[in-house]
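Lab notebook, design round three. We kept the backbone fixed and only want residue identities now. Task for the bench partner: fill in a sequence for the structure below.
Input structure tokens:
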């Protein structure tokens, strides 16, 4: 029996290493990561989706260290602190868009509605404007919950990445020579 099993195992092992891997599927990543932010300055952190098929809506909850960074309001005309919707999906129905700088959380829920078509490909889902608070510190920006769905409400599996923000010392104005 072992005389037959061993060659079959070796042949299968060879096929495993020779055949190309299946497509990885959709991913979500922060851009740029790590993000460098001078203390006191506001910098954009985009959340991008890549290689998705038939996306119609999504929900995302984020967590960050509120002692290190804070979310800057992207829409001063709306109550609360908002994130900036991306341009990948149509902004048909924005269900939830708010950040809580004392808790270090943010939530964003968006769905398209008829007649909008489902989107495939790569693009920006949303952008967070962050201001560094603690020079020399860093904070992860973690996706603690995420759901992506097709037009029919079927779940789309997406591999999630986390972002990192590093706060540099505040830029100091150059002294003029006397």
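Proposed sequence:
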């Amino acid at each position: 029996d072992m005389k037959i099993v061993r060659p079959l195992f070796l042949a299968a092992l060879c096929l495993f290493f020779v055949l190309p891997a299946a497509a990885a599927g959709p991913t979500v990543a922060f851009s740029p990561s790590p993000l460098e932010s001078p203390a006191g300055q506001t910098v954009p952190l985009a959340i991008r989706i890549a290689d998705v098929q038939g996306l119609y809506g999504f929900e995302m909850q984020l967590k960050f260290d509120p002692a290190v960074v804070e979310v800057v309001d992207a829409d001063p005309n709306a109550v609360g602190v908002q994130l900036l919707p991306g341009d990948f999906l149509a902004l048909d129905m924005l269900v939830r868009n708010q950040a809580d700088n004392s808790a270090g959380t943010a939530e964003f829920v968006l769905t398209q509605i008829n007649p909008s078509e489902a989107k495939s490909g790569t693009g920006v889902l949303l952008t967070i404007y962050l201001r560094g608070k603690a020079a020399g510190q860093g904070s992860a920006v973690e996706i603690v919950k995420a759901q992506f769905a097709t037009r029919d409400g079927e779940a789309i599996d997406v591999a999630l990445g986390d972002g990192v923000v590093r706060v540099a010392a505040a830029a100091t104005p150059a002294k003029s020579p006397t």
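Keep this in mind before ordering anything: Confidence is low (pLDDT under 50) at residues 10-22.
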